[in-house]
Design brief:
alpha+beta, three-stranded antiparallel sheet, 8 helices, 42% helix
């Protein structure tokens, strides 16, 4: 039987390779490098099957839905992303990203191909993490259990006064009084500087905060905040 002649289609080539058929599809130039890109695929049982796959791929390309197959892993992508955002976020924020990626993302979907991560996959990941995914210890719950409290709640004035009587004997008494009377956060208390205290006006200006990042507490300048001393 004579081989059926097919009309030539620009950018599409179908050819036999060994005992199977393959296609080569020109997908245009790379938008960044300008280099020619091709979509190659083989292993088809027949010439017709190769043509059908090539035309289907070409159709998706024309409709703007063509995505070149990639074996890039989620973990590889995240490692590259962390390098990009390193200088764009606070050190503490960056460390949070690293910690959560290492604790929750890489152990679950880190080895999967990036193109496999769809909305249903992410939804299942979220549900699993909510149900049983916590890998960091919940020290707050342990603390309240140890103190006999089922959950955090505001202290009464008597409880606060009792605590301050003990705290005033500590070498950090000034910081404990600030914590009890101003509502400053821990990072703000740790960033307090003596020359920011104005005893005449009864104010304390907090310009820096200090947080622990990788075992160290670097100073980071923030927006000034004035608290009553």
């Amino acid at each position: 039987m004579a081989r059926r002649q097919r009309p030539k289609i620009t950018g599409v080539t179908v050819y036999k390779r060994g005992s199977t058929w393959s296609y080569r599809l020109e997908v245009g130039a790379d938008p960044v490098t300008g280099e020619r890109q091709r979509d190659n695929k083989g292993g088809f049982d027949s010439e017709d099957a190769a043509w059908k796959a090539a035309l289907d791929s070409r159709s998706r390309l024309e409709q703007g839905r063509h995505v070149k197959p990639s074996h890039r892993k989620v973990a590889e992508f995240l490692d590259e992303w962390l390098v990009v955002v390193l200088d764009a976020v606070k050190p503490s924020t960056y460390q949070y990203y690293v910690d959560y990626i290492e604790a929750y993302v890489k152990p679950t979907i880190g080895k999967r191909c990036l193109q496999e991560i769809t909305v249903p996959v992410l939804n299942m990941l979220y549900r699993r993490l909510l149900a049983s995914g916590r890998s960091k210890p919940d020290n707050n719950t342990k603390m309240y259990a140890y103190s006999g409290r089922n959950r955090p709640k505001p202290w009464t004035l008597d409880e606060l006064a009792a605590w301050l009587r003990v705290a005033l004997d500590n070498r950090f008494a000034g910081m404990w009084v600030l914590a009890a009377t101003t509502g400053l956060r821990r990072s703000e208390l740790a960033g307090v500087e003596r020359d920011m205290l104005d005893l005449d006006r009864g104010t304390l200006t907090v310009e820096n905060t200090r947080v622990v990042v990788r075992g160290h507490a670097p100073t980071r300048t923030g927006r000034p905040r004035v608290a009553a001393a």
